[in-house]
Design brief:
Elements: E1 11-12, E2 18-24, H1 30-57, H2 63-74, H3 79-119, H4 137-163, H5 173-178, H6 182-185, H7 189-200, E3 204-205, E4 218-220, E5 225-229, E6 244-250, H8 257-265, E7 271-277, E8 282-290, H9 299-303, E9 307-312, E10 316-322, E11 328-336, H10 343-364, E12 368-372, H11 382-385, H12 389-397, H13 400-413, E13 417-421, H14 426-435, H15 447-460
Parallel strand pairs: 9-12, 12-13
Antiparallel strand pairs: 1-13, 2-8, 3-7, 4-5, 5-6, 7-8, 9-10, 10-11
Helix pairs in contact: 1-3, 2-3, 3-4, 10-13, 14-15
Amino acid sequence: MGGLRKLTASFVVSGPCGVAVRDRLKHLTAEDEGVLRAVGAHQGALASRDLKVRCAEGLEHGAQTWAARKRDLTKESSSRIAGAITKATHDQWALARRCQAAHIQNLAAGIRTLRYRLSLPLGEKGTKRAAGGYRSKSEWFRKSRRLAMLEARHTAAVAEWQAGRVRVVRGGKRLFNTRQHLTEAGLTEEQWRERWEAERWFIAADGESGKRFGNETIRVTPDGEVSIKLPVPLAHLANTRHGRYVLTARIAFAHRGAEWADRIEANRAVAYRIHLDTERGRWYLTASWQRPAIQTIPLETARARGMIGVDTNADHFAAYRLDRHGNPVGDPHRFGYDLSGTAGHRDAQIRHALTRLINWAVRAGVAAIGIEDLDFTAEKTREKHGDRKRFRQLISGMPTGKLKARLVSMAAEQGLSIVAVDPAYTSLWGGQHWQKPLTTPHRKMSRHDAAGIAIGRRALGHPVRRRTAPPPHDRSDRAGHRTAQAEPGDRVREGTRPPTTDRPPGEPPPNGKRKRGTSASNTVRDAPSTQQWVHDSLMRTG
């Protein structure tokens, strides 16, 4: 490969394993909201206490300690609520451990980069693969101080990892820090307090197969009636038998409603979560359940009807359709989105762009979509990109994880498969081999459109490059046909032959006058005659 890194093989991404739908709890009375707030605050306090105990246990956690925590919570709630709280606590602690490991890896990558650059002479130029030395002694000194700071942070993080200590904020670290910047956030203290308390509430229950309607704690009937099993200290708030409270709101899931109804009528497990959107003042109920593992189709089957290659960019998807031989079909398509603003706005933009992309793929009749397996984990470091803040913000703002999850789940509903390919050199080779040949007066090709072709060809198993070596023997194809087209401009039509002259090629004509030699005629009419015409008096007629 001549210094190029080895490309990973393309693969078909596994389908989704879970489903979640949401509907609004409308027409709640003041009494309903009071009960929901009381239940959320009580169970949220239990969840906070349980998380504190779990974090204190660290690596000494085991089945016995888990059972002891659950018994303590059962006294103040119920066995099912206690099980849901302890399971949520365990998941949150595990997530914190994974984030801690990623933080350690990020610090180690920054330390390696700084050590390498500090070891180089000042002003030494870098390459495409590695940065060079620092520009001045002042910059070298500042980076050496930063290296010492990163090493101290890395040592502390590794010590916490080995001790099993994690840092978790129930309610979110970002919202916690917003308390110190209320003016910039445009919030009052009362508004922040309401949002903070709502984020720390816990009104959720895991499903149970075999139980009535798939859940005993939060039960939703086929006609949409929602009832909650109240914890023991709040049992006096019940408005029906067995310590249950029935809400006045009715649920009717517009999306996947039939699938949800089939599950609860068969008493299959469905998990529920109730939460409050403080900005809108609305209550929502989210239902979720697991799906059996979807068998991915073979890669050759996904390639049978062609492919749509998609290049992911900061503000749009650049997509191009290719047939199964890797030839571009039609014109490029672009699906724009805006990643500025709130998280909800960004998520809506991504969903809208993916919906248009998938609908076009269905109309095109392909069976799969090829997309880059992007992962900027090692590309966001400040030490690698230095002062290129705009580029760091660009790659940090691309929601690659959420994009993958949404694309896989939305494509599976339309019967499409997702083929992940190695993103290396797609933009470079696409622009080099496909951008100029496909540009016409009526078709404008960008580098991103060409990258979509490169991604699609790689997903189909074809080489990205268009040019191949000529046959080894001669101009005939006795050694086999060419595997790709030749690059335009290498061989052109033979033009008009230069005139025959009496001087060597390239030598200017004498006295600036061009002397042209005689040339053979192309027709009989233009041919010079060898017959001499004579005047004969005998041929006259009287």
